[in-house]
Amino acid sequence: MTLDKDYTVGGTGYLQNPKDIGHGYDKANSGPAKGKDGKLTWHFNAPMVHDFAWGGADPDFIHDVYNGANGVKLHFLYKDNDAIKENWKKLQPKTNEMLKYFNEHIGEYPYKQYSVIQGGDGGMEYAMCTLITGERSYGSLMGVTAHEFAHSWFNHILATNEAKHEWMDEGFTTFISNKAMAYINGEDEGTANSGSYRGYLGLANSGKEQPQTTHADRYEYNGAYGASAYNKGATFLAQLGYIIGDEKRDEVIKEYYNTWKFKHPEPNDFKRVAERVSGFDLEWYLRDWTMTTNVIDYSIENLSSLDGMSVVSLKRNGLMPMPLDIKVTMNDGSEKWFYIPLEEMRGEKAVPNNWTVLNDWAWAYPTYELELDGVDMRSIKSVEIDPMNNMADVDKENNNWSLQE
User: Which CATH number fits domain 2-157: 3.40.50.2300, 3.30.70.1230, 3.40.30.10, 3.30.2010.30?
Assistant: First the structure.
């Protein structure tokens, strides 16, 4: 690529002739090389990528290089603008923290460079680089960088077809970048994707949802596409932790990456890895969540007493089945926890020793009687389905029962 010698460029690949270019590629703060006839010719090489981009071509760019984890050089190219310099300087060590988080929780980044370049019209991922509009708040700059950088794993390395399976690209990226941001900012990773749940629930209750098997170009509404790809896709992974356990879910993500990097996986490939790691049958989860618009909706219908035994009557109102976590709070403040596995998943997640594991709930039965042996109904203060809000139930209002109401 031959340009006027004053233009600084960043992008996909490794610059092959840094001494002939300068611009901070040969040594820190170097200016442009001499060139020929006022021009420089840039040579980039990018192995194992399925797209590429160059950005910059700007005579007013600052180019910083940060030595990141595992020998990865992180390049930052941004305008020489006093209003944004501080944010772009602060971003650099945080981007390295993102790299370390993604390496640990997905798998090692296989390249030795990544460039964050001011440009574009928002934030857009490319192989080994991203273009981001730079005149934004520090929090926004950091958040967009985390999302676009995470795309290096969930798109460019795994290389799913994002027109056919956009939720595997945008959704998985949203899930892991939200967790990375929470970790880096010292916040609760367990609630990092609560916004994704809210976005999905808004879609599910909007009447505009289409199945995630819909081609990206065939959504009737752009908003429905966005909520399905980003929010419902992220909720798929977050909720998988509720089904098989967070530790198993995290193990699935790493095994999925190691098994399928550079191989263009499809949804069934992810499901098979998840089944192999967890020991669960997850056909029902992939089917109902991605191939239909069936919703999760469970309710507590009644609390009664039978021969001195308390009975909680539960009902599945939605067409999508799920296992249930249930908390019973007693008048003295003590708690009793119960776990009802779903028969169709052919497995049980690990639960604390003080939980009671009950008989499976078969999908064919819309109701279930939870029998509390030795528990006087009058000693119960409340009963709650999914008290930790890990299940995307479309109507939380009927998930609680209290004798005081």
Answer: 3.30.2010.30
